[in-house]
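Summary for the steering committee. The consortium agreed at its last meeting that each partner would contribute one worked example illustrating the joint modelling workflow. Our contribution is presented below. We chose a case with several input lines so that the handling of multiple components could be demonstrated. No manual editing was applied between input and output; the record is shown as generated.
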Amino acid sequence: MDRAAPPDAIRDILAAAAAPGVLSLAGGLPAPDSFPLTELVTVLDEVMSSAAAAALQYGPVEGVPAMRAGLAARAGETGGHTDPDRVLVTSGSQQGLALTTNALVAPGDTVALEDPGYLGAVRVFRQAGADLLAVPGDEDGMDTEALAGRLRRGARCRLVYVVPHFHNPTAAVLTEERRRHLAELAGHYGFLIVEDDPYADLAFDGVRLPSIDAFSDRVIRLLSLSKTLCPGFRVAGLVAPPALIGPLTTAKQDADLQTNTFGQHVVSRLLSRPGFLPRHLLRLQSLYRTRAGHLAGLLGGLGWLTFRAPRGGLFFWAAITTAGVDAATLTAAAIEEGLAIVPGPPFCIDRDGSRHLRLSFATLSPSEMPEAVRRLELARARVSGPRGAAAAG
Amino acid sequence: MDRAAPPDAIRDILAAAAAPGVLSLAGGLPAPDSFPLTELVTVLDEVMSSAAAAALQYGPVEGVPAMRAGLAARAGETGGHTDPDRVLVTSGSQQGLALTTNALVAPGDTVALEDPGYLGAVRVFRQAGADLLAVPGDEDGMDTEALAGRLRRGARCRLVYVVPHFHNPTAAVLTEERRRHLAELAGHYGFLIVEDDPYADLAFDGVRLPSIDAFSDRVIRLLSLSKTLCPGFRVAGLVAPPALIGPLTTAKQDADLQTNTFGQHVVSRLLSRPGFLPRHLLRLQSLYRTRAGHLAGLLGGLGWLTFRAPRGGLFFWAAITTAGVDAATLTAAAIEEGLAIVPGPPFCIDRDGSRHLRLSFATLSPSEMPEAVRRLELARARVSGPRGAAAAG
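What follows is the complete predicted structure of the assembly.
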């Protein structure tokens, strides 16, 4: 459904979003128009005609060699470690996060993350009995000075979790300076960094910053392909320091033995097709740039939402400026109007998200967006009365 | 690699088995000749031409509706509950086992299982901090009278884990009487039964006994398709009592969000093709019956192994009758000769497996078997000297 999210509140919203006639700005569903269908048909033919026996059989716990190599090559595009022996293929990045947490976080350990943050991660950390350290962020991502201050005053972390490109939900990009600072803090205070980077390929200008793994030996990098290619194969990977790959592989074996071999064969062939990936990414970036621009224009026209126009990713993080309109109430009213949106509070740890919405520009086509925004305005009118009603009445 | 197994000793053996030139009687790899290639090509075309946008997208945590319905229908073939709302799609049965254990077993809880037993399960139970209660078995499967005796004397279990058809490693089939007895004990003593049944479709005569779920409301049934269709899609499911489906679905969401949508579309379509499954199972059963018969003849000819000829499944559980030949030593010698086999001890909890081997008849073709058995004899000769050497010399 949504890499981004579901605590139960969001699960309910996503269920509502799937109902007939409902338009959704809620989910983190990539645009189906972005899926590389033609190339996939070719690759499926190749797999079935030349590698079926292997692709349909069990494979190694750590992943099919071509898939590990493909992920290592992708990792190399933004710097950091590229040895395929450091790669573990996982069933989505969510599994990478779960395995990392289960293998490395003990009850009572502290995990730091940006507030607001990806609540799928928060659920996993809480499940493991971790204490959460909420670190504020701004348009440059996690405020590493604030983290450093907490550490100087005695806080200790086992893990620091970051979504460095087009953060969910804020769409912030962690600056290179802060990436280096975080790496330095990890070395100094001995914590591990989980770098979860599913949106890096969705930079509208194609520019990605270096991985934190380029600056530190203490990084576990989660490499998703769900937004880059499509979510349906559930093939992702992680890159980890050599000392951690053993325990993570054992955890993977216990969890599900291995990621589906068929998907690994398909995805690794797709990634290695000459010229495919750069061409595909250009198309993807152009598609999402157009959608974001379109939705930004429509939302801006409402006059009661403020937001920074994102430079990539899938989401707007928009603040409600009308007095008395609360995000949860607005969300409930929007569902009545046939529109699914996500309110801020489920993403928040310490801060108040009650005046924020997360709005995805990825799922609807530009032609559906005016109607979605019309419904959003109707929902607001339900909640606060039509604008200017007092003056007019 | 092997649904059956790997503690590290077995992982090493399976790695050795994959080396060029090595013949393997070790792994639980289904025969590639058994994969339904023609039908898969047709189904892949269907999925890409008529359902690509859905098959490549995220899907529900609990599984794609058609897949849940397909698994429910399969469950109904051997009795028990068939409501699709009781089905959770999992990434292999190993994941069903891991989710069940993580959601339901607390440190210090007792889990009972047959000794010898599937060590992939033992690893998961131990990882959860469970105490193991080893229950003896015989050619009729787990000795439920022995379990009842332990319970009468005060033992309490949270779970009882059984592999009721063609048990791994012993190939025993739990009788219907014992299935009913186990169900009765579960009701009386309040434990849950995990019925892990990946080999049920591999009965040489096509006869399967009723599921324990037909006799009890306390069963979590693991439905694998890896041996029935092929392992490569990693699509399986579990059927659980209504009160447990919620916690298991939440555990699934935290673990990996969902099982790969593409595989669910392919496998559910394959299962629902008119006439496909009965025809496929006949072919499968004939193929394995032939292989088992062939290997039984060759192993019987050695004169130093005794075993019950299996009626299905993938494995022989063979006892070494030559004095002084130990299974681990023989396994090491066999690798030297280019043959992978699995010794008994990794499957054993309390009992002594040092005189047993688990030998798979599934992976090698009949034409490769004579050479494999020749190497086994060479390995034995290395370990104990050629037979009759003293008399001849």
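Chain A has two domains: 8-30+278-383, 37-273. Residues 1-7, 388-393 of chain A have pLDDT under 50 and may be disordered.
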